[in-house]
Each structure stands twice: as C-alpha cells, then as structure tokens.
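Before relying on records like the one below, remember that each one covers exactly one chain. Contacts with other chains, cofactors or solvent are not represented anywhere in the record.
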Amino acid sequence: MENLIQLTERILQIPIKASQHAKDVDTFIVYVHYLMAVLFLGWGAYFLFALLRFRKSVHPKADYHGVQSHASSWIEGAVALIEAVLLLGFAIPLWAKVVDQFPAEKDATVVHIAAQQFAWNIRYPGADGVFGKQDMKFVTGENQLGVDPKDPRAKDDIQTLNELHVPVNKPVIVQLTSKDVIHSFKIIAQRVCQDAIPGMSIPVWFKPIMEGKYQINCAQLCGIGHANMAQGFLFVESQDKFDKWLADKAKTAGSSATSFE
C-alpha cells in the first residue's frame, strides 16, 4: 500500500515533504483522490451504460415505472460511508493534531509575523527570550511593527523583512497577524497555511525536518501587488547556523524592519 501511495504522489507531482506532518497531509490527499477516481470511473461507466441501455432504438416508448432496483441507494450509502471514514479517521484527527496539540513555547522557535501589502514583517525575541510590547499607535514608516520604543524588553528584539530563519527538527510557532487586509501565510513544502487577519493574532505551528530554502506564499488575493508576497523565504538550517545568524542579527537588534510600501 505504501508503494502505491508513493506512486500516486509521483503521478500527482506532490511537492517535497519538508515538515513532520506533511506525510499525514499527503496521505489524506491521496486517499481523497482514490475516492474521486472511483467515483469518476463509476459514474462515467454508468453514464455510458445508460446511453446504450436506454437508447431510443431499443426503447422507443418511455418506461414510467423507473428503476425498481435499490442498487443506486446502496452505492450512495457506500460512498457516504467512505467519506465518513476519511472525515472521522483522517481529516479530524489530523486537524486536531495540528491545530489543538501545540508544542510548548520553551521547546519551540517562536516568531511574530505581520503581513502587509506586500511583504512579511518577521520578529524574533532577543537574548532575553521575551518580545517587547507592541501597539498600533506606535506604527510609523520606520516602526512597521508598532514596537513600544520605551519598553526595555524590545531593545534586543530582532526584525527582518521577507526572511524567516528557523532551526531544523525543532517546532516553529508563528503568531500571525496583518497590518492592512486579509493575507494567508502559506509554505507549501511545510504543508502550512493560515489566514492573517487584521486585529487578530492567530497561532500556527509546524516542525521542519529538512534543511533548505522554501518560498513563502500568500494564499489570499490581497491587492494589485499580491505576487510580490512570494518574495518571502523560509530558511531551515542547522541549530549552529541558525544561532550564528541570530547572533549576527542581534548586533543590530532594536532596529525596525525595512519599510515596504
């Protein structure tokens, strides 16, 4: 069965699996495609059968009694049962695992991301491990994330634009919001997708298991420059390389991310 699933994934050209839960997501997608294939072939075959079986040359006069068999009802019941198995056996448990069972922040890399037209503002806590306070009243062209300039805990916070770095094999918790319109934070290789909504901070998490550079996309049409949201990238690297990058960024901590208007 595993070989069949892998063959199907190659046929469907499913993207690389770079996160811990990607395999479960892809398996569910494959099973849904199996069901759709069976329905497509089954109903296609029945359509051809009906065209031939009930053609005018064979039945010049309509039969007003209709089909007497209950086979179609049994088939519909079987399809409903399979759909229930997919929903209850795969979709809901996977949803619960990804949405409800968040890792502890002490064991994860925690970042704040604020989407805007048309970029991703990314923020890390500094050496103290605590984010400085934020408020919309502090937002300016130079202070894109509205960090409180008087909060001492904000002095060492690190901000980047379109550049998200995380260590491999460690959960990542993203607190996601938007500065203007609804965006959608999507990293295909990580199988993560979450809407970014103004005025709300929405948590989403994933665990990268493969080093590399992955594109961040916006899965919600957010304006005329929507395509520019794809300029964001996720860099998954070793813990040592991540620590070095973080240390380099800490040298200029406290400066705001570049404005992108």
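The mean pLDDT is 86.
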